[in-house]
Structures are given as C-alpha cells and as structure tokens.
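thought: fold this chain, then report.
action: predict
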Amino acid sequence: MQARKQPKDRNRKGSVAIIVSKDWLQLRFSYAGKRHYISLGLTDTIANRRIAEAKAKQIESDIIYERFDPTLERYKPQTALSVATASTPICTPIPTPPKTCLAELWDKYTEFQREHLEKSTIVRDYGKIEKRIQKFPKPFLEDAGTTWSEATAVQSHLLSKYAAEMAKRTLKQLSACCDWGIRKKLVSENPFKELVAEIKTKSRKASRVSRKPFSKECVAAIIAAFDNDTYCPKFTPVRHSFYAPYVKFLLHTGCRPEEAIALKWKHVEKNRIYICDAMPTDVRIRKDTKTHAPRYFPINEELRTLFKAIRPEDCHPEMLVFPAKNGKELHTHNFLNRVWKPILERLVAEGKVRQYLPQYNCRHTFITLCLESGVPSRRVADWCGTSVAVIEEHYAGSDTLRVSQRQRSHPSAII
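observation:
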C-alpha cells in the first residue's frame, strides 16, 4: 500500500499527529519542549487508523488534564497479547515496529542538537537540510537491501540540484546524523559515510582572493560615491547617502556587517564601542558575536564625528545606530545586492576601482591598512574580534599585504 502523504503544515500546540513511515503508523507530538514518537506496530489501514486516532485522542486528553505519562508506557502497544486456556496459551504477535525514516531521524537529531547549538544555526543550517530531505526521491533508511541504493539516489539528487560543495556538505550532515542514530540505536548503519568521499570539490584557493582589501584610493572613491549619491537612481525611495554612515563604520572599524547592524546606542560609550551582538540577516535572530566574546573598539575623532552626525535628538539607548529606513535592522543581503553591488560595478566601469569586492571586504581592508601602518597583530585581533593566528596567517606576511605595500609606494595604483 502506498504511504499517504504527510501534511506540510505543523500541528497545533498540544495536538498529536498520525504519520506514516514505510506503511506503518506512528504518533508524533511535543510535550515539555521535546518531540516524541510512538510506533504503534500497526500497518496503514482504515481500521488501524481508527485505533491510532483513539490513541492520539487519549494522549491529547492526558496532556490537557495534566495526567500525561512522560515514560510513554501507557501509550505504547504491548509486544504480545496472550490468552491462557486450559491447554495451550495462544499468543498473537504484534508486527515488527517500523523502521526509522530519514526525515524522522533528522528531526530527532535536530532536537538533540538544539540543546547544544545556537538557535540561528538550527534555523538556518539544519532548517535547510530538513527542506532538502523533504525533496529526496526515497528519504528512508532501512537495515538492509535498498539502503545503499537509496543513499546513492540521494547523492545523485543532491548533485543534480546543487553545486558539488553544497551536495558534499549536505551528505556530511546526513552522515553525522546517522552516526548519532547508530549511537542511539535508532538505525543500524550509516549509508552516507563513504558517499561523502566520492564527491570531489575544487580546492579552495579563494581564501587569499576573498581577503583582498581596497586601497586607500578605493576607500575614498567608495565613500564619495555614497556621500554624494553619485550613482543613485532619480526616483529611488532611499538615497545612497542614507547608507554612507554604515559603510564608513565598516571601513573604519573592520566590524562584521552582522555586528554593525546589531549595534545600539547603548553600546556607544564616550571613548569606546561595546560590540557584543550580531544579527545574521538570513535568520533575523539576535545572537552573540561569531567568537562568542564581546569586545571594545576605541572611538577616534573620525568615529566621534560620525556618531555625532547621525545620533538622533530623541536618542534612546535601545535604538539602532545603523537602522534601515523603517527603523528595524538593516538587511545586509538586500543592501549588498541593491545598493553596494550597483555602486561598486559603476566604480569599476569608470576605472576608480579595479575589481568588485563585497561589503565584507571592508573588514579585510581595515585589517590590512592597520598592519600597513604598523599596528601590532595582537591589537588588531582584539579590535576585530579574531585571533592573532588568523591575523598572522591570512594577513601579516601574506601576498595581500605585500601587494598593498607596493600600492602604498605607488599612490596612483588601485586594486
């Protein structure tokens, strides 16, 4: 019998869902913040559905009237029903419990990881994997037989839909999920482990390129383009100059974009900035910084002038320093694609900038210019919320810094 499709929408709070896994009925519900599954040992038939519905109503009632059995023993089916007679006992065995499907296993794995990872990681990374699993051709894990063929089908599906690096990263996550499932005795093997190694990706040579800085001349050209609305469309609802303070702050502090948009006026002190929060645009969840460690950044005259110019008269400590036009956090991805990229492409076309670089390279620019000026690596690392090892490995003594030093000796050069 073909398994019935599961509803895509989530159940209301306190409700018990009846789901089908490989033609077997299961109950799924949440209680006290944890997800629970109960295998009923019943195949998906009309009669068995009525039994499952009755069991689901019993659980819902117990939750409502606060008599829920957290051990779940009250709701689990008996392994066998026996009736004693005068001669021989008659036993009616219950069918073997259903096997765990990949979607269910990933759901349990996510619930486990929720206690160890940040909420933004669960929503962004684990949520993406969940959506991909829903589109897999055969999203089930079995003990034998079709396990490997189905895993191979998943691999082929990923490679047909995503780049090799993305497909490999997804398979790594699924492999980790299966390893966890084996430890929890939910599955018997990991069919994805060897498939990960089969995907060859290009060696990442982009690390040095991705950390390429803007020259001082480029910095001046970029700031001027924002300040003067040089490339601003005539009928745009938001002028480019509105974003100039945000761009200047990135270039003058090396702050990560998600940290800059999370900055509030309560974080701006007399002589220093307290950088403690971040707001990843893709999940819109306020969290701590990438290194999970707050830091201070000194306010020089340049920054003091910047803050004085943009501080509102009715300034409240909880107000954002660099808000969007609606007063909420700036959407860095939209800014990148709708404002930053068009401006930089025009600057490149006019020969004022040699190569397009994204807004994150403002951070690399600040770090490189600091090192050029002789600022110690330890101090730069403290200012930018990174380690001395990263500064030494990726900036100090790198080709990027040597190129920048040559540019310094030739003022007319641009990146």
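thought: worth noting. Residues 164-183 form the longest helix (20 residues).
final: tokens above.
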